[in-house]
Amino acid sequence: MYELASLEVKDCQRCDLWKTRTQIVNGSGNLRAAVMFTGEAPGKMEDLRGIGFQGQAGKLFDAILSHLGLTRQTIWLNNAVRCRPLAGRKNRPPRTEEVTACRPWLIQDTENIGPRVMVTMGRIAYESVSGRDDFQAKRGTIVQSSVGPTLFPLFHPAYLIYRRSARLVMCHDLQKLGHYLDEMGIEREKHADRENIFCVP
Ligand code: SF4
Predict the structure, then answer these.
(1) Using one digit for the tens of pLDDT, what is the confidence trace for 167-197?
(2) What are all long-range contacts of 127-131, with beta carbons under 8 Å and residues at least 24 apart?
């Protein structure tokens, strides 16, 4: 049986992002998770704390989990790249070569955790895992992939921070994803008072 330490990437210099990182933000969660969530890249807070989805986007991510009846303890969470991409002192999207360089670590997580469903959040995570460029067409749908688990692409939580209309789209997508998890027999909490900030117009 592998252990968490075997999934921790240490001292990686496969791309230039190592030069400006505070630390590598490795995956976290449940080593036997049936559902993996993959985001884009660490931001400032994640780089400092070493844990994915902090700050405002983190609150929205936790609301997504709550809506689905999942928690950070029942899923596995990682990113398309594990070091913070910087433009000056600001975050920037990771470049194609950085995503390509970090992809083996993402695939390693997928092979070791063995999730049945992989929820990619945002275009970059979806493209890294699927090798496809049709995020807009496939968001909110079930996508078969060569990496193993079925994919379910969603918007990135940060995209929802200032976009109320996108939250309603997320509401619809989460309802579909919830039904799919039930069809797959994946356990999730079903109590009625789950957090729901997406389905409110
Ligand atoms: S982003 Fe990924 S590939 Fe690049 S240095 Fe960090 S861990 Fe290595």
Answers:
(1) 999 999 999 999 999 999 999 987 655 667 8
(2) 127/99, 128/38, 128/80, 128/99, 128/102, 128/103, 129/38, 129/80
- Helix 123-130 and helix 96-113, axial crossing angle in degrees, nearest 10: 70
Give the pairing of strands 28-29 and 76-79: antiparallel
Domains along the chain with CATH numbers: 12-183 (3.40.470.10)
Mutate to test the pocket of ligand 1, among 7, 9, 23, 78 (most ligand atoms within 8 A of CB): 9
User: Given the CA of residue 9, which atom of ligand 1 is nearest to it?
Assistant: 7
Cβ count within 10 A of residue 146 = 7
Q: Quick check: 2 pLDDT over 60?
A: no
Residue closest via CA to ligand 1's atom 3 equals 102
Residue 119: Cβ-neighbour burial (10 angstroms; 0-12, 13-18, 19+): buried
pLDDT at position 77, please? 97
Find the length of the chain.
201
